[in-house]
């Protein structure tokens, strides 16, 4: 049953664009314009260099108004590092229907993934797992992590696939090698955990709330390097809290095979994501699902009052990503 | 971009309900944020937010110093050069703030300032002064990096964290502690488009400003100068 009946993720996000993002676009350092076909482009980091505040809004828009991003810090090894803390209401809907990047569209020989409230309308395979749809949305919002602004032919195709006129299609874009890129991927902690729970057959109806925290260890301009480091944040540094109501046994049975350090991943655990991704021809759709697993997940079972933990952080990979190949303390 | 204009909303939040922020509007149109009145955490945060012109996030967090967990003021800045030069360290006749802002801050032990209005006044021993002082760590690093010859447009984003330590009602001691914190207890980071060599050269001589980190966006390397001296910081609590 849809607990959010009457609430449109797309309408909520677009209202935020009208009321918050457009008035602040100069301070945010973003650009908003329409392509000739009418598609609205919100450039959060392709031909622009926005930062912390834009990264916060990028994430909160992706959650369709159901979550909040706050900046904090974490101590990793001997270093305090900036971190993002996410709180999410209706986490199954916010993540599976919107924030997750499971809408794939091929163009010019490559497959590109898209996230955002648009997925609640087009209903891809993971969106269908959530008890929510936004089929009547007349205007839709999609997000794309990409190194260039998609051409009009491509955005027209996106609008058509989403079932809206181009002028009703809004596309938010950012490169990975920007601070916004680092932030919004770090913010994908709960986003990464919920689909993993789907894969394991966890009963999603038992999940009530969720929160997560991830360090933002670095930002580097080169897209390949950036892709590696920002995903290291998640795979080796994120921690998700799931608040649920179920039998303890329904949590316990998943604990050993939930996180990246699960026994079946012993050949990849500890490898920087850049190397893992290269072994998958640098295509997300080739990454085996167990390799896109959270670093650490805590379950707070509200039915029994018990707490369970799976996974662990890998400080070595995180510090390596933070310092880079030649960085360190200078004497 | 009008940084002062962007920041004014934060100052106005204090004026909308001064009592909530421990502030008083004086007869000579100053805002007492820590001289006769006590000011407070939220007043300090709003003033720092106003001074960075809303171009970043300002939060309170914590830092472990030995067995103590101490509150910190943390800055996440989007345009650190602009907010530093035009507002945060822009000081005209002792009043800190942007030229295009109706508001400013002065650290003063009394409320005698004349012929100005909308100036927030906090004594050196106040919590507002301690918060502003800690928040200075990042702008001070910006100035250090600019002085080393890095062009403003190559300095992209910043992060800073500093413990907020209230030491004493004695002005001289409070000032000593604030300077000590800036020298031993803060962390300031900048993301820069540079060469590794020029960032190493800056980090190498940074031995009087806590820990500085220079992230080279072009190479992906981070160079760290100085260090938070936890042992020295602990001496403040004896």
Describe the structure.
The complex is a heterodimer of chains A (331) and B (238). Chain A has 331 residues and is an alpha/beta fold. In chain A, helix 3 packs across helix 7, helix 4 crosses helix 8 and helix 9 runs antiparallel to helix 12. Chain B has 238 residues and is of the alpha/beta class. The longest helix of chain B is centred in the N-terminal third of the chain and has 14 residues. Chain B has a 6-stranded mixed β-sheet. The mean pLDDT of chain B is 95. The N and C termini of chain B lie far apart (46 Å). At the A-B interface, helix 2, helix 3, strand 3 and strand 13 of A face strand 3, strand 4, strand 9, strand 10 and helix 7 of B.
* Sheet with the most strands, sense and barrel status of chain B: 6 strands, mixed
- Main pleated sheet of chain A: 6 strands, mixed
Through-space gap between termini of chain A = 61 Å
Gap between N and C termini of chain B = 46 Å
Percentage of β-strand residues of chain B: 25-35%
Multimeric status of the protein: heterodimer
Task: Flag low-confidence runs of chain B.
Answer: none
Shape descriptor of chain B reads globular
Brief description of this entry?
The complex is a heterodimer of chains A (331) and B (238). By secondary structure, chain A is of the alpha/beta class.
């Amino acid at each position: 049953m849809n607990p959010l009946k009457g609430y449109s993720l797309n309408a909520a996000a677009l209202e935020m664009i009208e009321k918050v993002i457009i008035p602040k676009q100069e301070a945010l350092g973003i650009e908003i314009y329409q392509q000739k076909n009418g598609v609205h482009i919100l450039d959060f980091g392709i031909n622009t260099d926005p930062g912390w505040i834009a990264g916060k809004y990028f994430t909160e828009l992706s959650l369709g108004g159901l979550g909040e991003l706050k900046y904090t810090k974490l101590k990793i090894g001997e270093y305090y590092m900036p971190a993002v803390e996410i709180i999410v209401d209706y986490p199954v809907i916010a993540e599976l229907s919107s924030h997750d990047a499971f809408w794939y569209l091929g163009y010019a020989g490559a497959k590109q993934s898209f996230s955002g409230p648009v997925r609640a309308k087009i209903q891809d395979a993971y969106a269908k797992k959530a008890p929510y749809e936004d089929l009547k949305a007349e205007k839709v919002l999609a997000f794309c992590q990409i190194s260039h602004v998609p051409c009009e032919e491509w955005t027209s195709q996106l609008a058509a696939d989403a079932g809206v006129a181009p002028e009703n299609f809004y596309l938010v874009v950012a490169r990975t090698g920007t601070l916004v890129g680092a932030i919004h991927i770090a913010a994908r902690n709960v986003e990464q955990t919920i689909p993993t729970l789907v894969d394991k057959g966890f009963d999603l109806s038992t999940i009530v709330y969720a929160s997560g925290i991830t360090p933002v260890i670095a930002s580097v301009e080169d897209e390949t390097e950036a892709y590696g480091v920002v995903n290291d944040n998640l795979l080796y540094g994120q921690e998700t809290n799931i608040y649920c109501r179920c039998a303890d046994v329904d949590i316990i049975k998943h604990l050993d095979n939930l996180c990246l350090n699960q026994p079946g991943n012993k050949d990849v655990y500890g490898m920087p994501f850049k190397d893992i991704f290269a072994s998958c021809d640098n295509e997300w759709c080739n990454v085996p699902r167990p390799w896109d697993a959270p670093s650490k997940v805590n379950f707070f079972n509200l039915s029994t009052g018990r707490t369970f933990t799976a996974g662990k952080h890998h400080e070595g990979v995180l510090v390596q990503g933070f310092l880079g190949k030649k960085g360190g303390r200078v004497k | 971009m009008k940084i002062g204009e962007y920041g004014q909303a934060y100052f106005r939040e204090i004026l909308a309900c001064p009592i909530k922020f421990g502030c008083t509007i004086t007869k000579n149109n100053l805002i007492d944020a820590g001289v006769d009145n006590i000011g407070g955490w939220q007043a300090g945060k709003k003033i720092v937010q106003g001074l960075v012109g809303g171009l970043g996030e300002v939060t309170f967090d914590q830092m472990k110093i030995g067995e103590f967990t101490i509150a910190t003021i943390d800055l996440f800045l989007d345009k650190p050069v602009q907010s530093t030069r035009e507002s945060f360290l822009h000081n005209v006749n002792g009043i800190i703030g942007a030229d295009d802002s109706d508001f400013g801050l002065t650290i003063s032990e009394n409320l005698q300032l004349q012929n100005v209005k909308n100036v927030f006044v906090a004594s050196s021993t106040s919590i507002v002064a301690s918060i502003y002082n800690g928040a200075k760590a990042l702008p001070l690093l910006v100035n250090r990096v600019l002085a080393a010859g890095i062009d403003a447009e190559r300095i992209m984003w910043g992060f800073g964290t500093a413990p907020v330590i209230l030491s004493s009602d004695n002005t001289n001691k409070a000032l000593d502690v604030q300077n000590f914190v800036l020298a031993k207890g803060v962390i300031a980071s900048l993301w820069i488009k540079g060469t590794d060599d020029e960032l190493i050269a800056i980090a190498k001589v940074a031995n009087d400003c806590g820990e500085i980190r220079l992230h080279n966006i072009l190479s992906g390397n981070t160079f760290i100068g100085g260090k938070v001296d936890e042992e020295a910081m602990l001496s403040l609590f004896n």
